[in-house]
TrEMBL record, chains A, B:
The keyword DNA-binding applies. The lineage of its organism: Bacteria, Bacillati, Actinomycetota, Actinomycetes, Streptosporangiales. It comes from the Bacteria. It holds the Pfam family TetR_N. Keywords: DNA-binding. InterPro entries: Homeodomain-like_sf (IPR009057), HTH-type_TetR-like_transc_reg (IPR050109), HTH_TetR (IPR001647), KstR2_TetR_C (IPR041490), Tet_transcr_reg_TetR-rel_C_sf (IPR036271). This is AcrR family transcriptional regulator. Residues 35-54 bind DNA. GO terms for molecular function: DNA-binding transcription factor activity; transcription cis-regulatory region binding.
Length: 200, 200
DNA sequence: GTCTATAGCGGGATAGAC
DNA sequence: GTCTATCCCGCTATAGAC
């Protein structure tokens, strides 16, 4: 993906600063509205230095997008693997999913709304992860239907609605608003149970 | 907003074509990813001709955004004014709100996700309309709580969730998918009732 | 109101020194 | 690995003819 450095430690820290600055400006102005001067400058570097770490601006976006999606998939899988009834696992999944989208709302904004900035092959890889996330959740919904715990006639559509609630947080959430990520997670987990007809 | 023409009929048609082309490219590539060549070319005009109708690219976005938001506000108000119990009105509101976001998903994508492209004063005006939309819906939710028809402890948060479900359709909806706008509207209206604890 | 042509600037990316 | 300096392209917007 990027040139291999001789001094990983320092290089890794620099890359982290670049990704951080990129997330900030991508979230604020979008991929095309952000310049490499914004990114490099935000990390305290010249534009030329950026190219030691990433080949193009698009590659920076890809790194952010891939990392974020993999983290989300891991989070979803962990909740599903955690045991209990489908309702308990859905509640846990949704609590974590919601908290992530609130806490990391700038990152979440980039990975959910800047997909169009990705080059075709990168976008395809990211979409593959998204499909796996959706498949995991849909599977859980179907399990709940099978056990009779959920009252859902169309699992695919209900899954879309569930994910919508979480993803859209990245659009509207602001620090210093009415709810902390934890408070929101608590309440949204209950709303998720209502959506699947398992009011707990 | 734009220069007054001598020949309104022909000018209006040209502007409509420009707005149409702009919506298409803004929805696909975002405001900053779209060029005035995309917009003008999509309407069959040269870039110079665009400036007869709009002073800047941003003004094109503003026109789209303002029109779209006003249409949405009108739709929300019409449903609320239509009479019946809060539950009946919420169901109607949500059916219309959902259908709009599916049917006009390209426009909806632009007006909901390209707000950052607006100049400060324009953005402020649009945000004012958004707040009115939210206020109308929240008011309806509170009415349902007052009559005991809805089971909601936090009307503000529930309103956010309701709007989220509708708005996020603009992100994921595609023509030729699993649901027509009407089918989706039907099902989402039922989900809205579940969210407010008024399963009908 | 529309065109062709172009000004003028800001963007992504690179060259070459340290 | 980072810098300064710069290339060169594509973008927004305008000039001036029809």
């Amino acid at each position: 993906m990027s040139p291999r450095p001789k001094n990983p430690g320092r290089t890794d820290a620099t890359r982290a600063r670049l990704l951080d600055a990129a997330v900030t400006t991508f979230a604020e102005r979008g991929f095309h509205g952000s310049t490499i001067r914004d990114i490099a400058g935000g990390a305290g570097l010249s534009t030329a230095a950026l190219y030691v770490h990433y080949r193009t601006k698009e590659e920076v976006l890809y790194q952010i997008s891939r990392d974020g999606h993999e983290e989300t998939l891991a989070l979803v899988r962990a909740a599903i693997a955690s045991g209990g009834t489908p309702g308990e696992r859905l509640e846990r999944l949704f609590r974590d999913f919601t908290r992530y989208h609130a806490q990391a709302h700038t990152t979440a904004r980039v990975i959910n709304y800047e997909l169009a900035g990705l080059e075709a092959s990168h976008r395809a890889q990211v979409h593959a992860i998204r499909r796996r996330i959706e498949a995991e959740v849909q599977d859980l919904v179907r399990q709940g239907v099978a056990t009779g715990e959920f009252d859902v006639t169309e699992p695919a559509l209900t899954t879309t609605a569930l994910l919508s609630l979480g993803i859209d947080i990245a659009r509207w959430y602001r620090e210093g608003g009415n709810w902390t990520p934890d408070e929101l997670a608590e309440r949204y987990a209950k709303l998720a149970l209502r959506l699947v007809g398992a009011s707990g």
